[in-house]
Amino acid sequence: MTDPAQLNAKPCPEGxxxxxxxxxxxxFNRYLYQLVGEPWQWNDKLKESDETWQExxxxxxLRTWVAYYRGAIAGYFELERQPNxxxxxxxxxxxxxxxxxxxxxxxxxxxxQEAWQWSPCQRVWVxxxxxxxxxxxxxxxxxxxxxxxxxxxxxxxxxEPT
Length: 162
Description:
Structural class: alpha+beta
Largest sheet: 5 strands, mixed
Shape: globular
Order of helices and strands: EHHEEEHEH
Radius of gyration: 16 Å
CATH topology: Aminopeptidase
């Protein structure tokens, strides 16, 4: 997304609130990553040390928001400052029990709004892949994001070392 006017925001469902975790705590980010990412095989970062997590999550260039529904964590997103006045939605998703309740559209809308308000910002982007929820790409596009690039990874042949 290269212009905030492209955003097709979805309103907030009743009972949902989205709050920035202004007090940074790397253990909380690790918990959110595991809670939201487990069904989508987000496991590469779980092997990282406390020091690596702390360096990642508690730096100035990363901000975290959490969606709550009736006191329970419904999802979260992280925004990461990039070079050239860009903001990446580093992680985004819902906790498994909250998928299909209409929360994803609003949570993504908030992620995009917050990214654009993190001045200066010239572009907001996110990576997705076929391992993500089948509705992820449609949600990104429905909110006004456009596909910038696609890549196809070719798995190694059985006789190639991995």
